[in-house]
Amino acid sequence: MLKTFKKGGVHPAENKISADKPIEKLSLPEQVAIPIAQHIGAPSKPVVSKKDKIKAGDVIAESAGFVSSNIHSSVSGTVLKIDHIIETSGFKQPSVVVKVEGDEWRDDIDTSNDLKQDISLSGKEIVDKVLKAGIVGMGGATFPSHVKLSIPEGKTIDTLIINGVECEPYLTSDHRVMLERGEEMVVGIQLLMKALGVKRAMIGIENNKPDAINHVNELVKDKDGIDVYPLKVKYPQGGEKQLIKALINREVPSGGLPLDVGTVVHNVGTALAVYEAVQKNKPLIERVVTVTGKTVEKPSNFLVRIGTPVEKLLEAAGGIPDDAGKVVSGGPMMGKALKSFDVPVVKGTSGILVMPNKEAKRYNERNCIRCAKCVSACPMGLEPYLLKKLAEQERYEELEENDVMDCMECGSCSYTCPAYVPLLDYIRFGKSKVSQIIRNRK
Amino acid sequence: MTETVLYTIISLSILGAIMAVILYLVAQKFKVYEDPRIDEVEEALPAANCGGCGYPGCRGFAEALVKADDISDFYCPVGGNETMAKVAEILGKSVEEKEAQVAVVRCSGSFDKRPRNNFYDGPASCAIESALYGGETGCHYGCLGQGDCVEACDFEAIFMDENTGLPYVIDDNCTACGACVEVCPNDIIELRKKNKKDRKIYVSCVNQDKGGPAKKACKVACIGCGKCVKVCPFDAITMENNLAYIDPLKCKLCRKCVEECPTNAIVEVNFPPRKKKAEKKQQNEKETQAKTGNNEKQNNN
After folding, report:
1. Which residue does chain A place closest to B126, by CA atoms?
2. Does B127 contact A428 at a Cβ distance shorter than 8 Å?
3. Which of A138, A280, B62, B166 has the largest CB neighbor count within 10 A?
């Protein structure tokens, strides 16, 4: 029997169209816009000014606090301006706009392709390098990785979980990373293990990627403590709490962190970034992005510099198809429809999905028939219909009592609702209000 | 037979009388004194229960009024000065006359002036659209057009115009209770002084972007050029965050700024048509002469 989590979950059509497309390096754009807030936590402070000449890998914005991250230039060139640029969320954010001139890298970055397997650094030094390289969770939540590697006193960690689940339909960037950069990723996992001081690492991969499971299994055969666990296909297994439940059967308490149950979860993309940062001195300035869609001419996986406009990616994948209804950043379940194609790729962009008009359309909302399908679909054991109602009626205190903050916005409720009630929209709105109230209370 | 009926009537009457005495005594014992003026004041209030005064309904407002020593800070926007005078009479206190106000929608980004560059298909609520999506146009400051204000209005004073996608206020119905102001997530609606003949001059824009992006997103956006600030003879216009604001208390409705505004972001409502061009030209010439004269004087100084 394959492992999986028990509570809730749905199984949307997988549509992994780009799974067999190797990672391609995307040519440099003429201009990049690098937002200074690409992570959860405090926005970084820009340290460059207009007309500065910078190389790829130079710090352009410094971390502003513990839960924050450095931002590096992904290209070499001249800083044009620091301005408000529209980004994935649809809102304008301060960004550093750089005109690309050549492709010159910072001198201490090792750009060779040799695999460096020997780990000479101590745990503390590894965390330090991760911090300097501005690595954040590459699965999409963009939580600064060094925070997850700094274990507070009094907590013990016994297991490192590596998230290779990629439960979102359509997306294949993690899949391709495991297949093509597996060797480097495994070294990255060893680095993470050393930094955390754990002896056991579990790689969770969903059963719809047999080639990745076999390949990674082959790579970790002679590595002590690292094992691959095939998982039953179920959304949202890539959620950290669901993955912990599936692999080691522990439940993260409400409002708690994986730390509380003795584990830490990192994405396969993060493991690769850690390898590059520690062994090659390369900061997080590029990532693998899936560009896909049923009507896209050339669904592909691109290695893209951070800050590249989405338009470039779409062009490289054969342009925007005529019947495109929505262009979504991320997957179809959790992704966000884009307002403009000028938005830059950021550290958390895992894919760009073009949905044809027919599928992009939302159905008209009908009355809730109290079938409670959303309740059985919710992987966090919440009652989405109730949360929606409370949010709609602005009953924020009750909303908080009903643990709205535990919602991870996976969208299973909206997906499963037979009356097409936009449950998640209301819950997200309620969450933003409740978090505001909580912040004001402090 | 008659005896039974008689005894029943007698016993029930006695029982009733005893109960009445008990009830009377209990009522005396647990009596809560309530100022009779509260009822009187409540009677005088408009009974709209809109909350525009800041109290929970008219009863709450009446209680606060009776309790307070000085009621000059209290104001019922629905009843206006008339109601407040009545209340003052009942309570034997004095009130100051307050300027009547009216809600003004500070956005002119209609469909043709502010093109939609994407399509929002989420729940029809401005609050949700602004919190999660940032609007359908290039300007995320402006009206989202889902009509939360229409829903909030208790007086049928604000409606959506289907041709422009913007709300409009019916001045005669508006009581300035502020419900729409409160509910608008983008703070577009403002309560401004009500002038004679419902005349209005205001900056119909809340876009805080710099000139270029603002103009790109909307043809009638305030671009923060500052021309109106210079031309205003009463120092009523201030510029903050690339956005001009006309102080309704200082503005004397001279309409100079309206002419000056290059994007027509400043609008005038309910004014008679302007003087003919020839007259205006003469006037302009006079003005320029006067100005140059002033400059010369200054130079001499």
Report:
1. A429
2. no
3. A138
| Cβ distance of A90 and B133 shorter than 8 Å | yes
Say how many C-beta atoms besides its own lie within 10 A of residue A206's C-beta. 25
Residue with tokens 């010439």: B285
Which H/E stretch holds residue B19?
helix B2-29
Rg, C-alpha atoms of chain B: 29
Q: Spell out where A186-296 has E strands.
A: 200-206, 226-231, 263-267, 286-292
- Token pair of A434 as six digits: 């409740």
Check B134 against A89: CB less than 8 A apart. yes
List of E strands, B209-265: 237-240, 243-246
Contacts of A171 (CB under 8 A, 6+ apart): A16, A290, A292, A330, A331, A350, A351, A353
Q: Transcribe A265-330 into DSSP letters.
A: EEEHHHHHHHHHHHHH---S-EEEEEEE-TT-SS-EEEEEETT-BHHHHHHHTT---TTEEEEEES
Q: Evaluate if residue B295 carries a pLDDT over 60.
A: no
Q: Which of A425, A427, A433, A434 to substitute to test the interface with B, most B CBs within 10 Å?
A: A425
- Rounded to the nearest angstrom, the minimum Cα separation between B218 and chain A is 16
Are the beta carbons of B131 and A361 separated by less than 8 Å? Answer: no
In chain B, what residues touch A362 (CB-CB under 8 Å)? 121-122
Residue B26, helix vs strand vs coil: helix
Cβ contact B132–A340 (<8 Å):
no
Distances (CA, A) of B149 to A286, B140, B178: 45, 17, 10
ipTM over 0.90: no
Tell me if chain B has a CB within 8 Å of the CB of A358.
Answer: no
Closest CA to A271 of A196, A380, A329: A196
Residue range A336-362: average pLDDT?
A: 90
pLDDT of residue A382: 94
User: Do A377 and A415 contact (CB within 8 A), yes or no?
Assistant: yes
Question: To the nearest whole angstrom, how far is the Cα of A361 from the nearest Cα of chain B?
Answer: 8
Q: Closest Cα partner for A310 from A273, A268, A350, A344?
A: A344
Interface A–B counts its CB contacts (< 8 A) at 39
With tokens 């079938």, the residue in question is A371
Token pair 């009779």 in the structure block, residue: B36
Distance from CA of A385 to the nearest CA of B (A): 15
B44 burial (CB, 10 Å; 0-12 / 13-18 / 19+) is buried
User: Which tens digits make up the pLDDT trace of A99-144?
Assistant: 999 898 998 898 888 888 888 888 899 999 999 999 999 888 889 9
- CB-based contact A34:A73 (threshold 8 Å): yes
- Helix count and strand count (H, E) for chain B: 11, 8
What are A351's strand-pairing partners?
A290
Q: Kind and range of the H or E element at A127?
A: helix A123-132
**CB distance B123–A365 less than 8 Å?**
yes
| Sign, CA torsion B57/B60/B66/B70 | negative
Q: Is B132 in Cβ contact with A429 (below 8 Å)?
A: yes
Element spanning A353, H or E: strand A351-356
Cβ contact, residue pair B131, A340, below 8 Å: no
Q: Where are the beta strands (DSSP E) in A14-130?
A: 23-25, 31-35, 45-46, 53-54, 59-62, 71-72, 77-86, 92-100
Looking at every residue in chain B, the average pLDDT score rounds to: 86
Q: B108-144: per-residue pLDDT in tens?
A: 999 889 888 888 888 889 999 988 887 888 888 999 9
Cβ distance B242 to B209 under 8 Å? yes
Q: What is the mean pLDDT of chain A?
A: 92
State the angle between helix axes of A182-196 and A210-220 in degrees (0 to 180), rounded to the nearest 10. 60
CA distance B36 to B94: 19
Residues B109, B139 contacting (CB under 8 angstroms): yes
Q: Where are the beta strands (DSSP E) in chain B?
A: 101-105, 158-161, 166-169, 189-193, 200-203, 237-240, 243-246, 266-269
